[in-house]
Each structure stands twice: as C-alpha cells, then as structure tokens.
C-alpha cells in the first residue's frame, strides 16, 4: 500500500515538473512548435512528448533525468532555430521549401513525385480548400507544414466574376476524373455513359494521340473535357 502511494507520488511530481518544463520550452521557442510550421517543428514536438511519456513510466528515471533531457532537447531546438534565423542558406535544408504543385494552371508531375503525392491526394487537398475541379486553379502551393494554398484563376475567383450579373439558379455538377496517371478511370467513364473510342476522339481533338500521354483528364458537365499532359 505504502509502495503504491510512493509510486503515484513520484508520477505526480514528474508530471508537474514535466508540465512546467514543457510550458517553459514552448514559451521560449515560440508558437511555431505548436503550429508545427516546419517538419523540424513536427519532429521536435513528437520527441518532446516521447521523452516525457517514456520517462514517466520508467522507475529508474528521476525528475533530474527528465529535466536534463528536456533542457538538452530544448537547447538543440533553440540552436537550430537560431541558425535558420541567422543564416538564410540553411533554411531550405532545415525547414524545407514550399513546392508549386500547379503552376500557371499546369500540374507539375515532377513536384508531385518529389513530394510523394499522387493525383488522388492532390485532388483531396484541393477539395479541402473548397476547390472541386483543377480547371479553376492557377497556382497550388504545398507549404512546409503540409497544407495547400490555392490561387484560383481570375474568372473562377470568388465572387464568380463571369456570373456576377446572372442571379438565376443553375444546377451544379461534380467533376468526374476520366484519366489519372495516363490510365482510364473506367468507373467514371461508364457513369458518364461513354466509351473508350469517344474518349480517344476527345483527347485527339486536344492534340494528344493516346491516353498514355495524358496525366490528368476531367469531365465537367457544361464545360467539357479538361486535359493536362505530362
């Protein structure tokens, strides 16, 4: 019974000390550790939580060991942040660089590969920014924290400039991806009610000789087929 009380007392002391230490580190290092602006911030947050979590349930680790580990890791983070502020050339390596996934309306296959993204993931990121069709996008920039910022083309910017004098209700359609990574998305093509020969004819009209030459193809009712090559 006494042994259990001592055990819980030690955990309570370690928790309080860890809380104060983590709070102090966060205040010293700034808000970037909380928002995890860079990959390094993300790693730092994970390591700090692991240091505390593992130490709490290791009976051989005392308060002094926890404080030493947190202080040393906090110091390393502080030094790294100081280096990136002092020397601009180190920022790209330590903090990462934003990637332009869509540049002037064109998908950058090179940047997608570099960031280990496929077209489905890009579409998911766009939808999270309330963009449901790629034809609306002029620029899409993947930030170092993994978020996507989108600049729409002028005619699609909010409020819709091409419809500002049109107050009538219009039926809204979801776009259908017909080609992804040079392959036909058969489910959507069947849903649309067309065949491969129709799709081949449509891509030929836009200067492509085969489906394999097309990185991305999307159909939107009322606007037709939108294609981007490699």
Automatic annotation (TrEMBL):
Chain ranges passing through the membrane: 6-25, 63-83
Domain YetF-like N-terminal transmembrane: 8-83
Pfam families (alphabetical): DUF421, YetF_N
Subcellular location: Cell membrane
GO cellular component, one term: plasma membrane
Residues in YetF C-terminal domain copies: 86-219
InterPro entries assigned to the protein according to its UniProt record, in alphabetical order: DUF421, UPF0702_alpha/beta_dom_sf, YetF_N
Membrane topology: Multi-pass membrane protein
Domain of life: Bacteria
The protein's name in its UniProt record: DUF421 domain-containing protein
Organism of provenance: Alkalibaculum sporogenes
